[in-house]
Design brief:
Shape: globular
Order of helices and strands: EEEEEEEEEE
Radius of gyration: 18 Å
Structural class: mainly beta
Largest sheet: 4 strands, antiparallel
Length: about 130
């Protein structure tokens, strides 16, 4: 069951009522939510402040117009019909590099990357992965 609550936000529960997942937000009370035509699901407070967005929390898919910020990751699914975190991930590191690596399950420890974009630029203080002369 999916429920939108004022104090816990968007909550996903199993058939027995046990909480499986919830949207985490620091402050505010949920008043309403909206699915945008871009595919972004947004939870708002009574004064229309964005408390949580699905685009801020990518899992295994990026949609058009969705931006992946540094320190975020995309994970493969565990199996074809099991959408829990799988063994492979794409990570955008703080230094501007994009890496592909496998992880240890269940610890989530990332192994050495088998692909590194080499887009780190020490002269670029924003570390967005673009060379400073671009």
């Amino acid at each position: 069951m999916v429920e939108l609550t004022p104090d816990r936000g968007l909550v996903l529960s199993d058939p027995n009522g046990n909480e499986i997942w919830k949207s985490d937000f620091a402050t505010g009370e949920v008043a309403y939510a909206r699915m945008n035509d871009t595919g972004n699901f947004v939870v708002y407070s009574a004064d229309s402040q964005r408390l949580w967005e699905s685009f801020w929390n990518p899992t295994d898919t990026l949609l058009p117009t969705q931006v992946m910020n540094s320190s975020r990751l995309l994970s493969s699914r565990h199996k074809e019909n099991n959408f829990s975190r799988g063994r492979f991930q794409f990570r955008l590191l703080q230094d501007g590099n994009a890496v592909l690596n496998s992880i240890n399950l269940p610890s989530n420890y990332p192994y050495v990357a088998y692909y590194n974009s080499s887009t780190h630029d020490a002269d670029n203080p924003l570390n967005l992965g673009f060379p400073s002369d671009a």
